[in-house]
Amino acid sequence: MYQPLVSIIIPTYNVEKYIEQGIDSLLNQTYSNLEILIIDDCSTDNTPAILEKKYTKNKKIKIIEKSENLGPANSRNIGIQQAHGKYIALLDGDDYYAVDKIEKQVQVMESNPDVAVCSTFLYTFGLEEKEIRFPISHIEIKDQQLLGCPVAHPATMFRTSYIRENNLYYNENLRFSEDYDLFIRVLLQGGKFMTIPEALYFYRLTGNQASFTRHNNKILKNEKQWEISKALHYKVLSQLIDENSKLYHKKYIDALLVHHVIRNFQDLKLFIVWAKRLIEYNESIGCPFSSKFLESTYKKSVLGYFLAQKQLSWKILYQYVTVYPYCAKLDLTYQIKYIIKCILFLKH
């Protein structure tokens, strides 16, 4: 049976404890036609020694040692440039694959020649064991790009020809959100996405990931990443409106993109009017985003206004009733509690 070559790029940096598990998960795949490109970013631990001792004689594996630490984006770009496969897959040095991950992704890519990017769900382990799900269809993924990265980046498989023909390399100037930035450029070039609804990638949570910090048992976005992400949200929105559009109102855009919460009720009413006009305009130009998604998003922002109120009152209840048709719906039990708190002038 024909098996197109798949190149797997592994950027490594100080992963001596974990790298063998990851590489061995590739060598044990049900899919055999693999090229494994390991790009070491000047590790200071025993990672290079482990790679040399255990994997240099394996013909499937090529080890590249960089002379300067330039980050994972640079390492992945080196891998893309040197890959010979029809498809390129990624693996972080401290993670590993399910045994049939590559086989299932290749089946999707071969059956759907218009798909440029195929990912999967994740299963986290280490600090927390949990399946992380993502949007599946291209339409869902395209919509969700407006609010953040809706694709599991390390689980991604790319169509090599599409990436190279469109010059879609990682932005090495970004230390955060370089994956989100790349996916946006794929989207703006017309690339199609798909996610397999199975957790085929095992993602290790160590507490050291660049995009997350842990505080009071909650995962909080790194502030620098958030600033970059906000700029990227605007880049996605440019499919619909830009600074030259009559509908361009930064205050309302930031509310839609959940950059801030509207605090003034008059502003909230004007925001609803603006959002309805935005949806009409979206439909008039062929729906860069689904109208259902835009409606759901702006209604969540309206709900955000009420959830942000610290002191509830009859006035807040009146406001809630006034805009109720344009507000995302609370769970019935929660909604009843909220109304009672308003009547009794309780704090929220």
Verbal overview:
Strands 1, 2, 3, 4, 5, 6, 7, 8 and 9 form a nine-stranded mixed sheet that branches. Strands 10-11 form a two-stranded antiparallel sheet. It contains 13 helices and eleven strands. It folds into two domains: 210 residues, Alpha-Beta Complex (Spore Coat Polysaccharide Biosynthesis Protein SpsA, Chain A), CATH 3.90.550.10; 104 residues. It is 41% helix and 19% strand. The N and C termini lie far apart (62 Å). The protein is elongated and about 75 Å long. With 348 residues, it is α/β, with parallel strands linked by helices.
Calculate Rg over CA atoms: 23 Å
User: What structural class results from the helix and strand content?
Assistant: alpha/beta
Principal-axes shape call: elongated
Spans of at least 5 consecutive residues whose pLDDT stays below 50 are: 211-221
Q: Mean pLDDT, as a whole number?
A: 94
Number of helices: 13
CATH class of the largest domain: Alpha Beta
- Write out the CATH superfamily name of the largest domain: Spore Coat Polysaccharide Biosynthesis Protein SpsA, Chain A
Please give the oligomerization state of what you see.
single chain
What would CATH call the architecture of the largest domain? Alpha-Beta Complex
**How helical, in percent, are the residues?**
40-55%
Strand content: 15-25%
Terminal Cα separation, in Å?
62 Å
Do you know the CATH topology of the largest domain? Spore Coat Polysaccharide Biosynthesis Protein SpsA, Chain A
Order of helices and strands: EHEHEHEEHEEHEHHEEEHHHHHH
Characterize the largest beta sheet: strand count, sense, and whether it forms a barrel.
Answer: 9 strands, mixed
How many domains comprise the coordinates?
2
Tell me how many strands there are.
11
